Fold this sequence. Notes:
mainly beta; four-stranded antiparallel sheet; about 0% helix
Amino acid sequence: QVQLVESGGGLVQAGGSLNISCAASGSTFSRSAMGWFRQAPGKEREFVATISGSGGVTNYADSVKGRFTISRDNARNTLYLQMNSLKPEDTAKYYCSARQTPFATTSSMRYDYWGQGTQVTVSS
Length: 124
């Protein structure tokens, strides 16, 4: 069915920036709300940001608000997360997700598809 492949993770110093992406296939991208979630070792997966199918509505976790920007290019079936002013606390594996509706939610339980994740490591 739907495949999601994240890329762009890596190591960066605190204060630096990274832009990670998620390539989607197997579905109508513009009809699917998308989200970024992250999980650090020993911690639960947490909400980072979501975006509606059209890209018109976004939501961010308080911990990343003002630093991260979620966006999508529906023509290329790609989701992005621009991460600026990175902190060591941002270190985690970042997962791309999609649900079978254009309406976004911050609950990971309501997303239908998941990528395998891309590792982001921020050094101090």
